[in-house]
Queue: 4 jobs
Job 1
Amino acid sequence: MADLAERGHGSAQRDPRVIVALDVPTAAEALAFARRVTPALCRLKVGLELFTGAGPGVVGELAARGFDVFLDLKFHDIPTTVARACAAAAGLGVWMLNVHALGGVQMMQAARDALEKGSARRPLLIGVTVLTSHGAHTLSEIGVETDPATQVLRLAGLAHQAGLDGIVCSALEAGIMRVRFGTGFVVVTPGIRPAGTAADDQQRTMTPLAAVGQGADYLVIGRPITQAPDPVAALEEINIQLRAPF
């Protein structure tokens, strides 16, 4: 795998670490938030709700404003279909996209190969392991009789084997990811909740500063910012906390 400086549209610098999840149904709402912030303050995530409601055009509009866009669609299908979807996503100018590691090594390798055939400044490709809304009970329901951390480690190993740039996991597993795979393997952590905010539907959470201390590269934060009384102030406060020395 190449150094971070050679992958995606970002540089080797991880700042800004915060990826704001634009979990809204319309392009108008997403762009209204984007007008209030700058690419120096955050990156932006387009997920299933916004992509389905607004279409791929919103990704291009956000990218045209200078934002690094994380396209969070968790592709999981047969290798050929996923490879073609990843190639199409790269054409939108995204900074990072993901596939689900449950698709297996062959599927993830096909996705990686499809991106390698494109521009040298290809998007970062990361694998989703276990959703932060899932706990041991949820895994047991679907026939996975291991604890979340063990399952995360198993799927992260497959993503690493397939040559992906990193993984998505909860901050609770970030430390072991960093020990096992080193600093060149990107760790993206959703389920981040600043102190005093509601957990909502997340089960495995951590504060922003604690997550970075565990080894997270990027923090996906949605409702604690977008639904705050003053979203920009909430984002700036998190960035101030992240600049504090450990």
Job 2
Amino acid sequence: MILAYKFQQRLGLGRRLMECLLEAFERGAAAFPEIEACEGIVPVPLHPRRLLWRGFNQSREIARLLSARHKLPIWQDALTRVRRTVPQMTLAREARAESIRGAFAADKKRLAGRSVLLVDDIMTTGATIEECAQVLLRAGALRVDVLVLARA
């Protein structure tokens, strides 16, 4: 369903994906109440060229319902992709971490002393999430919690 949404422009699936993400957040918050202390949502960004090609950032879009229901702002500019990378799904497991290293930058002013929820659609090896979380923490984020829609 996620792949059809992302790559086949089946945007009608978006609402169901948003509901799934919201449900996952609420289940996680029940088990780990500290997650609700996050101050903003940071979607994993796309490189501007990929965003132009796809037309939307799926990580940002699936976070919209969560943002509205829990009154959490989406800080889409807090983390940016500064280097183009090949799609992670095209790489072998071992090459993913190396490919994504140095691909992101974070806004220190926005993040300093803040707790954030990093959102992505699919996590396979965790290389992208790990790199993003490290960049957010180096920029001064106090805490980074992670919410993904699916694991591959």
Job 3
Amino acid sequence: MSALLSPPSRAFTAAIHALPEAVCVRIANKSWRDDPRCPRFADLAYLELDHVTFDGEIARGELVVAAPLARRAVEVFRRLYQLGFPIRQMKLVDDYDADDDRSMSADNSSAFNFRVIAGTQLLSQHALGRAIDINPVENPWRRPDRLLPPEGEAFADRTTVRPGMIVRPGPVVAMLDELGWEWGGDWRHAFDDHHIAWTRAL
């Protein structure tokens, strides 16, 4: 079995917006905080993106990312779409009250969330809008003694590749390498298979 489905015949479409007022209201005091370290609304972009679903249909998703990263993020999802890589859903993490655990358990792909790295006081790349989580259930965060979200247990074995999984070697990681994104599955302290981040200058 492959991580991919048949690519859609319809062309990919996406839109990049300054944060609409309705989105500002929606994320305030959830993923966005009135903290001097938090990006200002003007520093963020709201993306609307086509994606392939697990039943082979086309859905419209949404992300908030750092504004200078918007076009690079759109290119990632354009390539995923053209590959036929399915995504369960793509909603703002605010639909889960900015609770990362709830969002992951719902297999939600999301980006901006002003938060620290779990167990530390260090800001996550998500806090800067520079990281995106893709299919957290099919691509769980893994250590020998722990796996998140728990719903991803069936995907702990990365040798049996199924739709929506990101593995190396594979076409998704090859694309991320080509475009310059860091993949969390390459980490050694823990394997964060759903995490991609832009760690270069913008």
Job 4
Amino acid sequence: MRPPLAPQDIDRIIEMAWEDRTPFEAIELQFGFPEKEVIALLRKHLKARSFRLWRRRTNGRATKHQALSRLKRGRFKSTRQKAIAGNKVSKR
């Protein structure tokens, strides 16, 4: 049995699961939660409607699985991202 997660870790796992380009493998590498456990965590901590929306959106999505993803190395970054973000950290 796993030790209980801190609330900020649960929030981060949910956030990573909602991100379209974050694969389940990245969540497993960082937190040790395989896909099935991430789904169980989301089912437990999200409202039923929010979980159904997430599940419908991510079901079969290639970017949520590294093996199916077209991006083998690195990550996708829009050429306009820096100009749009306005984030001072991204301009360094």
